[in-house]
Amino acid sequence: MAKPVPENYLIRASLYEEAIEPWVWCNSEVPNGYVTIKNVKNSKKITVFQRRLNANFARKYDNAKTLPISDIFEENKILVISEFYRNFLDIQTSKEDGDGVTLTVTKAKWWQLLLLPYPNPTVQLANRLTYISIFISVFSILIGVLISKGGT
User: Are 27 and 80 in contact (CB under 8 A)?
Assistant: First the structure.
C-alpha cells in the first residue's frame, strides 16, 4: 500500500445548518465515503464521512455569503469542515488563499469506523449508552456462565 502524500488544504468553515452533521466536504482524490484526515503538523486525526465538492455545493456556499468557494475549488485542495472536527484536528480556517494546512486524506479502514467522533450531542449520548449496555451485557453473560459452571 502506498504511503499517503501530504497536501496543502485551504480550510473553510461549514455552514451553520451543517454544524452538527457527521461529514466534511473535500475535493481530495479519495472517493466519497469514510476517510481518515490527519494533520501532519501534530499527528492528530479523525475518521469522518467525506462528501465531494462540486458546482452545486459551491453555488450553495456562495449564496450563503461565506468565504467564496466557487472561484477557487477547481484549482486548490479545499476542506470544508465544522468547528467540532477542526477542534479535533487542532486547525483554524484559512484567512487567505495561500494560508493552508498540510493534511493527508486516506480511505478509512473498517476498524476506524467503530469509534467515530460525532458532532451531534444526542448521538454522542446514545453511543455512550450503547457501549455501556454492551459492557453490562457481556459482564452479565460471563457471570451467568461462571455461576452455571460452579453449580453443576
Answer: no
Q: How many CB atoms lie within 10 A of CB 46?
A: 21
Residue 24 contacts residue 37 (beta carbons within 8 Å): yes
**Amino acid present at 121:** P
Query: What is the bridge-based pairing of β-strands 33-39 and 23-26?
Result: unpaired
String of DSSP letters for 48-82: EEEEE--HHHHHHHHHTTSS--TTTTTTS-EEEE-
Q: Distances from the Cα of 39 to the Cαs of 34, 74, 92, 140, 141, in angstroms? A: 17, 22, 12, 41, 41
CB under 8 A, 24+ apart: contacts of 122-131: 123/22
Q: How confident is the model at residue 109 (pLDDT cuts 50, 70, 90)?
A: confident
* Cα of 132 vs its chain's centroid, Å: 24
The residues facing 107 across adjacent strands are 35
| 37 — pLDDT class (breaks 50, 70, 90) | very high
Query: pLDDT digit string (tens) for 73-84?
Result: 667 788 888 888
Per residue in 114-129, pLDDT (tens digit) is 777 777 777 778 878 9
Q: Checking DSSP bridges between strand 78-81 and strand 7-13, what pairing results, if any? A: parallel
End-to-end CA distance of the chain: 53
